[in-house]
Amino acid sequence: MRGRRDVPQDGVRRNEMIRAREVRVIGIDGEQLGILGRNEAIAIAREHGCDLVEVASTSEPPVCRVMDYGKFKYEQQKKKAEAKKRQSVVQIKEIKVRPKTDDHDYETKLRHIRRFLEDGDRCKVTVFFRGREIVHKDRGADILDRITADLQDVAKVEQEARAEGRTLQMLLVPKK
Questions:
Q1: What does the pLDDT look like over 82-95, one tens digit per residue?
Q2: What is the per-residue burial (b if ≥16 Cβ within 10 Å, else e) of 18-42?
Q3: Residue 68 in contact with residue 50, Cβ under 8 Å?
């Protein structure tokens, strides 16, 4: 069941769905036609082979426009698709390291972080501690400082290292 009968699914009233007796009409070329009765306005729209579309329902009287609704809807859909195509999605990639991470593993993770940043993504570096390792938070901070120093040519720190439970986190963003 769709809910109220006088409002279509797309939320735009047109032609006979318009409830007001009198409406302010804007013509096909954007000129003001004045305040007309609903049926008279619909007749004018039909003469032009168009629809009468309610564009401002809250004003008194409601404002309606004479337009080809199908064409209008199609153009809106095209604009939305074009805007979606142009937007770039920035993701946050996460790399996890431990305080005891060896040099070779560190270099591999550093290469991954560099690749993420060069692709334009943000990178969250997390040092997580297990068991008694939590006592040595300074080792985790040293690793994050070392990553910052090694990547200073491609990255800048957006969020400084901060402790959260058993983790130490830092957010890197690509340099522009």
A1: 988 888 777 899 99
A2: bebeebbbbbeeeeebeebebeebb
A3: yes
